[in-house]
Prior knowledge:
This protein is α/β, with parallel strands linked by helices. The chain has helices at residues 4-16, 46-55, 63-77, 130-136, 158-164; strands at 20-27, 32-33, 40-43, 92-96, 102-109, 112-119, 139-143, 148-149, 153-157.
Amino acid sequence: xxxxxxxxxxxxxxxxxxxxxxxxxxxxxxxxxxxxxxxxxxxxxxxxxxxxxxxxxxxxxxxxxxxxxxxxxxxxxxxxxxxxxxxxxxxxxxxxxxxxxxxxxxxxxxxxxxxxxxxxxxxxxxxxxxxxxxxxxxxxxxxxxxxxxxxxxxxxxxxxxxxxx
Length: 165
């Protein structure tokens, strides 16, 4: 590709075609995207990943990455901006601290930022939500199979979350 502008144009076209979506980092001071931060790119539908893996067997995509993409696409289905195409989403972000700690999804609604962390692993504890709690005071931790209620965090299996959304 000739430049980052060309890459951005391609990603925007694929996003508006509902093939993939990208999330921008959230500036929590302004509740606006940090334009100079990197973007996270996900396939909108898991079928896209399956096709890529079929034609490129050397490509490795972990289950946890696919689950994170599915959670994000389900959150996007709740976005009030989805009809305008996936390149115009302005209520779903990711968050990253200055030292590189990350929260997978931050959804802006009338109550303010709602944080969601996906930990698709065999064993998860509420300690895995420390970054989310430190910065957002509360949050939802999605696990593979564990369920636990904490004072500031709720841990649910991803399957329960997807069934409820």
